[in-house]
C-alpha cells in the first residue's frame, strides 16, 4: 500500500514516515501543496495524509483540486486546527477523516487501515490468501493447515512467515531482513509508539 504524506514540518513528517513504514506502508513525503498536486496527478496512491497549513498552496486547496479532478483517493486531514468549524469545513470539503494534532501514531495507522479497507470494498479487517489469514493490525498470520508449514529448518524465508502449527498466529517481523544481513537470529519487529504534540514535537514513548 502506498501513502502520500503532505507535511511541511520536517521533524513531524519524518516521525510519521517512520511510523507508517514500520506498519508496512510505502510512504512518499512532500512538503508543499504544489508538490502534492503534482504527485497525485502522476502517481496512484491508496491514501493521502494531508496537513492544512502548508506553504504556498494550502491543504484545503489541494483537497478541493483533488476532488474536482474526480479523484476519490481517501484523505485524512492531519492538522492542529481543532475547532468544530474547521472539522466541518475539512470533511465537507472532501476529506474522509480528520485527525487533530497532537495524535498517536497507532491511531493514525488504524484510521489508515480502515479507510484503505473501505476504499477496496472490504468490510473485514482480515486478509485471506488461500489457507493463510493476515491481520494487518497485529502483523500476524494464521495458518489453516493441520501441520506446520513446510519450510526447511523452520526458518523465516522471503515470505516473512515463520513456521507454526495450524491455527497458531505467526508474527511478521524483521527476522527475514536480519537473516539476509547474515544474522542467525530473527526477532519480532520493533514498533515505535510516538506522540506528535501540538508544537510539532515528536516524542518517542516506547518500543514493543
Structure overview:
The protein is an alpha/beta fold and 208 residues long. The chain folds into 2 domains: 2-121 and 191-207, 3-Layer(aba) Sandwich (Rossmann fold); 140-180, no CATH class. 30% of the residues lie in helices and 24% in strands. The protein has helices at 10-22, 33-42, 59-68, 84-92, 105-119, 175-180, and strands spanning 2-6, 26-30, 47-50, 75-79, 97-100, 103-104, 127-129, 132-135, 140-143, 169-171, 192-196, 202-207. The strands form 3 sheets. A 5-stranded parallel sheet has the order 2-1-3-4-5, sandwiched between helices. It has a 4-stranded antiparallel sheet with strand order 7-8-9-10, with no helix packed on it. The longest helix is centred in the middle third of the chain and has 15 residues, at 105-119. The two termini are 23 Å apart. Mean pLDDT is 75; it is low at 155-194 and 198-208.
CATH architectural designation of the largest domain: 3-Layer(aba) Sandwich
The residue fraction in helices comes out at: 25-40%
Percent of residues in β-strands: 15-25%
Number of helices: 6
Count all strands and give the number: 12
What Rg, in angstroms, do the CA atoms define?
Answer: 19 Å
Shape: globular
CATH superfamily of the largest domain: Response regulator
The top-level CATH class of the largest domain is Alpha Beta
Record the strand order, biggest sheet.
Answer: 2-1-3-4-5
Task: Detail the poorly predicted runs.
Answer: 155-194, 198-208
Number of structural units classed as domains: 2
Main sheet characteristics = 5 strands, parallel
User: Could you give the order of the helices and strands?
Assistant: EHEHEHEHEEHEEEEHEE
Structural class call reads alpha/beta
Q: What's the overall average pLDDT, rounded?
A: 75
CATH-derived topology of the largest domain: Rossmann fold
